[in-house]
Amino acid sequence: MDTQSLRDRVKSWIAQDPDPQTRAELEALLEKSAEAELAERFSGQLEFGTAGLRGILGGGPMRMNRAVVRRATAGLAAYVQKTVREASTRGVVVGYDGRRMSRELAEEAASVLAGAGVHVHLFEALGPTPMVAFAVLQTGAAAGVMVTASHNPPEYNGYKVYWDNGAQIIPPHDAGISAAIDAVGPLSSLPMPPLEKARRKGLVTLLGAELEARYLASLQKLALHPEVSKDVSIVYTAMHGVGGKLALAALAQAGFTRVWPVPAQLEPDGRFPTVRFPNPEEKGALDLSLALAREKDADLVIANDPDADRLAIATRRAPGDYLQLSGDQVGALLGYYLLTERPAAADRLVVTTIVSSSLLGQMARALGVRYAETLTGFKWIANRALAMEAEQPAIDFVLGYEEALGYSIGTAVRDKDGISGAAVFAELAAFCRSRGQSVLGYLEEIYRRFGLFKSAQHNVVLPGSTGAAQIRAMMERLRANPPKEIGGVRVVATRDLARGVRVSERGEEKVDLPSSDVLTFELDGGGRITARPSGTEPKIKFYFELRESIAQGEPLTAAQERADGRMKALVEAFVRVAQPV
């Protein structure tokens, strides 16, 4: 795009931009002749996909702003009205978190929906992402919108869409909404009634305390051992997000009285002043929590990410010594607790992803429980469970989890929920204490019964068009000539989701998963390696897992050291096999 065409496009955007702040921002860039910056902001538009929209706040079509949200919501309104029965009267839920511009973008969406004649169930205050998924089912809405960028850095915001089943959208709805967005005319032509006027006309209903009470009541139904003593001490952090109010209420409701929130991180603050990257998985994110835990000699650290859909756990090993559990370890603990302590009256189901630990599957098979794997992303977990429930109404969905700290327990919230996860995990810890056992002792019980599952991840970053070509070549080479052994370990089967097949000594069989550029090499002894190019970053991800048996009477540390050595050798061997030419 030449300079004049770029400037003309910027001016055309400014003319339709409803936000004085972003208009001024773009006008300043024009005044400074900042062509490189403008070219980047106008190189395309934020793509609407199964995660909705997410981007850096600012002016232009490649940024998150009121104009982008206005157009996206107009497309969503048109698609929902065309696709969902009685969508206009059933309405759309709109919620928002504590990030910069979240409230303004949510109100923009609500006004567009009301202008299109769609009833709006608008949260009257900021709140967690799981509450939007909960509200869609509670209100019978046709869809839901959550303005959040989850655990991204502070300069980001996003727009997540739920369907009428309470789960995040999957194909074909993502493509349908995207096409409807592309068909939206000039923004100036959209009716945008003030929200107070729309409310007086009955087009907007506010959601607040009554819905929160219903949500907390739903958490009480998840309790398996309400009778055990709740004398477990807990440090909690909301990570400057919106989970604090409900998480603390949920813990108090369950009977936990020794709970210390991290003061500097309890209140919502979109600047995230104490953590640059507010993701509990990131190194240093739990430093303040661990410091308070050492001061209080707490048993547990419980952390939510800023929109409270993720859960992280650290547990006390010894005075002043804490271990942060991996997402797979938390998933295994929750799965074992829910499956062994919950009455087995129904046909139970657990679901995880192809890159999460296969320990949950091993557990399910041993306990006679249905098990399913999906692509990465919680939208797939929730929708797979819903599909299986529709086919077999007697199915009882118990747990869905992904290794990236996402957990869904029961059916009240059809998405990952860090608050319900926190309440159930706290009860798990109390249950362990009632047996004279630590959380780590409970984890060892699992390992001794089902095997020690060791996981690792290795990323290869290859930026630019050259890197993208190298990543494609790596996948093509692995697909065309799959290794027969890796580091001395025999490959017993290869699963190729692009072709939708699994190939083993028994031949080729179809795989019941959506097409995706993913390869999995299943190893002799129960391990596997999965190769998956990132959909958002210039890198390819390799996920590794090994299963190590523990001999009777053998110290767990000995098996762990053996597994660590095997894993190190396996990672090194596969990286040599897969490395770009």
List the helices and strands and how they pair.
Blueprint (H helix, E strand, L loop, with lengths): L2 H14 L3 H12 L3 H7 L11 E4 L9 H18 L3 H4 L1 E5 L5 H14 L4 E4 L5 H11 L3 E5 L8 E8 L9 H10 L12 H6 L3 E4 L1 H12 L13 E4 L6 H10 L5 E3 L1 H4 L20 H10 L3 E5 L6 E8 L2 E4 L2 H15 L5 E7 L5 H9 L2 E5 L3 H14 L3 E8 L3 E4 L8 H17 L4 H12 L1 E10 L2 H17 L4 E2 L2 E8 L4 E4 L2 E4 L8 E5 L4 E6 L5 E10 L7 H23 L3
Parallel strand pairs: 2-3, 2-4, 3-6, 7-8, 7-9, 12-13, 12-14
Antiparallel strand pairs: 1-5, 4-5, 9-10, 10-11, 14-15, 16-23, 17-18, 18-19, 18-21, 19-20, 21-22, 22-23
Describe this structure in words.
With 581 residues, this protein is α/β, with parallel strands linked by helices. The chain folds into 4 domains: 11-22 and 40-207, Alpha-D-Glucose-1,6-Bisphosphate, Chain A, domain 3 (3-Layer(aba) Sandwich), CATH 3.40.120.10; 215-324, Alpha-D-Glucose-1,6-Bisphosphate, Chain A, domain 3; 328-450, 3-Layer(aba) Sandwich (Alpha-D-Glucose-1,6-Bisphosphate, Chain A, domain 3), CATH 3.40.120.10; 452-578, 2-Layer Sandwich (TATA-Binding Protein), CATH 3.30.310. The chain has 20 helices and 23 strands. The strands form 4 sheets. Strands 16, 17, 18, 19, 20, 21, 22 and 23 form an 8-stranded antiparallel beta sheet that branches. A 6-stranded mixed beta sheet has the order 1-5-4-2-3-6, sandwiched between helices. It has a 5-stranded mixed beta sheet with strand order 8-7-9-10-11, with helices on both faces. A hairpin with a 5-residue loop joins β22 and β23 (539-548). The longest helix has 23 residues, at 556-578.
